[in-house]
Amino acid sequence: MVQDAISNYLGLQTESGFTEYKDIGMNNIVNDATDGDGILSMGKLDLMIMNGTDKFTTHQVHLNEIKLGGLNTFTHFLPLSLSSDFTVNNEFRMDKLSIEFVMTMQIWPSKITDIAVAQSTNDVIEETFNVNALEVSELRAKRGNERSEQRAKRATSEASNERSEQRAKRATSEASNERAVTAS
């Protein structure tokens, strides 16, 4: 009974399959928690991920924020499905899932040597940038295209091999016919 209530509230329980995102309760919960955009932001991190110095510069890279997107694109959500007395399964499918990193790089003149190799009037140059990781839906589409291309190459190769085999059989048949004519 609890399982049915959870599945009916969070998941899609229709015979025809996926219709709209709003039909799946989990998407509605995610939308309520993320102001309707389906993006979870882990901000104000300020994690230094790189710190280095060379003859010319001293530089640091900080990870400021991580954003997970597409969290409200569930097309199938079936939590806590009991498959036996001791086994619980969870199933879900999503249209897309993305990750984005917001980073800051700081560069300033190096003080590693006494000799001024590089001189600058700036104390610190700071640049904030985003790194957008590939979305899962794009990756799936690329993988699908690669598989289609591989199948087409295989089919072409198999057809070519088949034609070669047919030519070889004809040549063998013609050669044996010629030997039969010559022998008689």
Integer tally of domains: 2
The H/E string reads HHEEEEEEEH
The fraction of residues assigned to DSSP E strands is: 25-35%
Helical content (DSSP H or I, runs of 4+): 25-40%
Gyration radius (Cα, Å) is 31 Å
Anisotropy-based shape: flat
What do these coordinates show?
- This protein is α+β, with helices and mostly antiparallel strands and 184 residues long.
- It has two domains: 2-133, no CATH class; 135-184.
- It is 36% helix and 34% strand.
- The strands form two sheets. Strands 1, 2, 3, 6 and 7 form a five-stranded antiparallel β-sheet that branches. The protein has a two-stranded antiparallel sheet with strand order 4-5.
- Strand 2 and strand 3 form a beta hairpin.
- The model has no long low-confidence stretch (mean pLDDT 77).
Keywords for this entry:
single chain, 5-stranded antiparallel beta sheet, alpha+beta, about 180 residues, flat, two-stranded antiparallel sheet
Describe the SSE topology.
Elements: H1 2-10, H2 25-33, E1 40-42, E2 47-53, E3 57-69, E4 74-84, E5 87-94, E6 98-109, E7 125-132, H3 136-183
Quick synopsis:
By secondary structure, this protein is of the alpha+beta class. It folds into 2 domains: 2-133, no CATH class; 135-184.
